[in-house]
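Final report, closing paragraph on structural work. Over the funding period we assembled a curated collection of sequence-structure pairs, and we close with a single example.
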Amino acid sequence: MTSKPWPKGKKLVHLDLKGAPPRLGYFHQLIEFFSELGVDGLLVEYEDMFPYGGELKQLQSTTQPAYSRDDVLSLQEFAKSKGIDVIPLVQTFGHMEFVLKHRPMWGLREVPYCVGTMNPHKEEGVKLVMEMLKQVVELHPGLKTLHIGADEVYILGEGEESKVWLASPGRTVEQLFLSHVTKVAKAIKKAWPHMTIIMWDDMMRGMSQDTLKESGLVGLVQPMLWDYTPNLEVEKTVSLLEKYCSAGMPDLWTASSFKGSTSVYTCVPSTQRHVDNHLQWLKVAASLSPRINLQGIAITGWQRYDHLSVLCELMPLALPSLAACLQTLICGQFNIEDQIKLSERLGISSVEVEAMERTSPENSVFPGQRLAELIVELNSLLNSENIRYFENDMFVRGWFSPYHQRRKMVTPLITMQIHSQASTYLTTLQQKVAAVREEMIQLYPDSTVQEWIEEHVSPVMAPLQRITEQIRACVKEMVP
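Its predicted structure, as stored:
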């Protein structure tokens, strides 16, 4: 089924740097690739990779060095040379884990056990946010647009100060949310009068038009409605956008996804899932009334669900998905013919990275292709039943159960066969992991390589290693 192509506005690619921040050289390769795909903006979520200074220096990552000031300027300059704008995304209310995890900031949490949500009653909190924004804006010369986050503000209203505030008649959690965001937005407009402010919409979805109109947000912000599901509800989404428009906010953005939204620990993305999400967004765009001024779409690529969760799919594995999603927006469809053309352009047999094979012996067409190929191979091994569920093997359960292991009474002939098989699997995995490590270290910091291996490989290899060690110990007790 063909829809109209994406109507107008910018096509932004969201870069989530709170996990697997690319090395500068690879970052430049990605920008080059994005420009070839027709991207005209980057929505960059720096988090702890931004070179905060002064009292905020503690916010910089300690796992790997943050980008330097020169790095940030270099990236912007290179993006600009490719016709790509950079829009920073700085969280100012929810998802502030990278700030509030630091002990000196604990007092700014809404409740002690929620690391992500800021207490909206603390003036120090607003000062902190404004200092963060000031440093980011200053390092983005000529910046015209800023995204202030404000999604998923969990547990809001549960703090002691919030409970006191809410005890006054007529006050609601909705008003509490809106008052903080309005305060931040007004402070931004005071500091930078011509700045366009974008914010995530989810906390406003249940609010009435009147509540939004009375909030003071009208004229200050442009909501960005996000939905990453392949079965996005078109009518419901259109209704939400129309509601924001009727509340006095006709300048609106949407947000889709090309990776990082399937599950918190997904390793290899499904291109079709993300294409389906964009096909639904095309239906939404075609159904909007003329009074809505669609500013554009941000194609998000989450690297973590939040600062403290595990890594989602690495960028190289998701570039075929991104290319397919952009093609869908540009053409209004993604049929078999479109898939074949894009596959040929990328030099692969399929846009589904799990099934792709290189069709050209020449250099990679998309940056990081070799790493994507190696990870797909390794992931296939890690998920094979023989390896992942080795402890459930008939011989292991029958002749090397926990009962046997505790008593060190085993049948050496069979357990040595088990040992041989486990060792073979381990050797194969170690060889594949070495190849992945060698390729990944060229694109990502050492810490990312180590984290990825600990997350995806170690849990599968550990049981095999344990069994081989235990068998050696048991056989010693049984064989002279």
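The CA atoms of residues 32 and 240 lie 35 Å apart. The longest helix spans residues 412-440. We thank the funder for supporting this effort.
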